[in-house]
Write a structure and sequence with these properties.
Length: about 500
């Protein structure tokens, strides 16, 4: 057979070389048949010889084509995807298999252990006791059954996991006193601040699953924030004293799947110094209109992490959706608690209303190999937002947006960010840089596709715009502002660039 005649693995062959081998095989097969058959069939009529010859030729060609396509298919499946910098993407990123919670250990339904199905009383200590019991017994699943359970900060231990049944709601207290002050991470700094509703620190293997809801109950916090901001325009997020919804720190092998994460008082998800974290088919929501908007309700903040997958999620929040953080300040690159984000994949997501679909900064020092692909936005203010702080050395490189549809105010924004910043004197201050930024396969309605500002505080280079067809009210596309830009198959308002 064909495969048996080859002495090298088929998937290692160049496509042209593979096709050459197949053609040679077909030719040799036909030549051998002619030699063998004509010797024994001298009495066969010329017509019959031609008929048999063409029949065999057709069969041989069909076989070769089938073999060629099969080999290419196998080769494609065996070929790893690449990150924007050309390095190989680990196969971990292609695994969107949901965790089988039945394999995580015994189920501990909280109402079987003294927790009342009563939405009017805070039961922090009772729920925490169940978590601690499960940890002492070697691990398992804390189950929130149908009903609403009010609580303050909860701290998960090694081996514990959280499952919310459909109709089950874990609801946060609207009093900050129920969230103890701990050493944590907030706004690009390690400091003392209020704990989150769900806290997981130093865990290897942690799962939050189920079609139930974790509800931050943020209304009163939002009201108080806007009152504080009205009284003092310089009121920061830290000054407003609000808990986050989910905080995952120093963890690995974490999965959040199918869960509803809503009404966070502050950031909805914050992952810090963690790796191999997956968000699969999660619903993340905070109000963006109505009587009170949810300030700073970021969907997912990625802070000094690597190997993060966000797949199939819905995000609608009154701030940015997926945000790269990692540190801020003039000396941020010298602080060991700060660090880069690398190998982050966001794909197949649906954005409702958000300030930015993918935002780098405002508290970020180094972001590398960030991919946003195959997503849709109903009403995004921005798609790719590169915030550059004049007081912080920042390096954003090898970022790709590939495949985006829908509606946005601005598609690409590159601007200085100076909210609540304090520049210090530093003689060796590195120049910030954004480089190797790729936008391709874009079909959107935009108010301003290209909102780019230059500065002596940062450098822009090697931006690529490819296969783009958008409407643009501002019509300000000027890739010449960015050295070494590449523009291919770009159509704006029907005009080709």
């Amino acid at each position: 057979m064909f495969k048996e005649r080859l002495k090298i693995p088929l998937i290692c062959l160049d496509k042209n070389r593979l096709w050459e081998i197949i053609i040679n095989f077909a030719n040799n097969s036909l030549q051998n048949w002619l030699h063998e058959s004509m010797e024994g069939q001298s009495l066969m009529s010329e017509t019959n010889k031609k008929t048999k010859y063409f029949k065999l030729m057709k069969q041989t060609i069909l076989f070769c084509v089938f073999t060629f396509l099969t080999i290419l298919s196998v080769s494609a499946k065996g070929k790893r995807e690449l990150w924007p910098d050309g390095t190989s993407m680990d196969v971990w990123f292609s695994d969107t298999t949901k965790i089988d919670v039945g394999q995580l250990g015994s189920r501990y339904v909280i109402t079987d252990y003294g927790v009342k199905n009563d939405s009017t009383i805070i039961q922090t200590s009772q729920i925490q006791s169940v978590i601690d019991l499960v940890a002492r017994r070697g691990g398992g699943i804390i189950v929130i059954p149908k009903g609403t359970f009010l609580t303050g900060a909860l701290f998960f231990r090694q081996g514990t996991n959280l499952y919310l049944e459909e109709g089950g709601r874990l609801k946060g207290s609207d009093r900050i006193a129920n969230f103890p002050i701990v050493k944590t991470r907030i706004e690009g700094q390690t400091c003392s601040y209020f704990s989150a509703l769900i806290n997981a620190d130093g865990l290897n293997g942690f799962t939050i699953a189920g079609k139930g809801t974790i509800d931050g109950n943020g209304f009163n916090y939002w009201q108080e924030f806007w009152i504080r901001r009205h009284w003092n325009s310089q009121c920061t997020n830290k000054d407003a004293m609000r808990p986050r919804l989910v905080y995952i720190s120093n963890c690995k092998n974490v999965t959040l799947q199918d869960i509803h994460l809503v009404n966070s008082p502050f950031w909805t998800n914050h992952i810090y110094h963690s790796d191999h974290v997956r968000y699969l088919d999660c619903y993340i929501y905070a109000p963006t209109n109505g009587p009170v908007k949810a300030p700073s309700s970021d969907a997912i903040d990625v802070d000094f992490c690597h190997d993060v997958l966000i797949n199939g999620c819905y995000m609608n929040v009154n701030d940015d959706a997926v945000v790269m953080k990692g540190g801020k300040g003039t000396w941020a690159d010298k602080d060991s608690t700060n660090g880069p984000n690398r190998n982050i994949l966001i794909e197949n997501c649906h954005y409702g209303t958000v300030h930015g679909c993918l935002t780098l900064g405002s508290e970020s020092i180094n972001d590398h190999n960030i991919v946003l692909r195959n997503c849709h936005a109903d009403d995004a203010r921005r798609v790719l937002w590169l915030k550059l702080r004049p007081d912080t050395p920042q390096q954003y490189g090898y970022v790709t947006v590939d495949g985006f549809t829908g509606n946005t105010g601005e598609f690409l924004v590159v601007r200085p960010w100076s909210q609540f910043f304090k520049p210090e004197q530093r003689d060796d201050m590195p120049l910030s840089r954004c480089h190797h930024i790729v936008m391709m396969n874009i079909r959107m309605n935009c108010k301003n596709f290209f909102d780019v500002g230059t500065s002596d505080k940062y450098q822009l280079d090697h931006f690529t715009f490819r296969n783009i067809d958008v409407t643009d009210e501002k019509n300000a596309f000027d890739p010449h502002l960015i050295p070494n830009s590449i523009v291919k198959k770009v159509v704006i308002n029907g005009k080709k660039f």
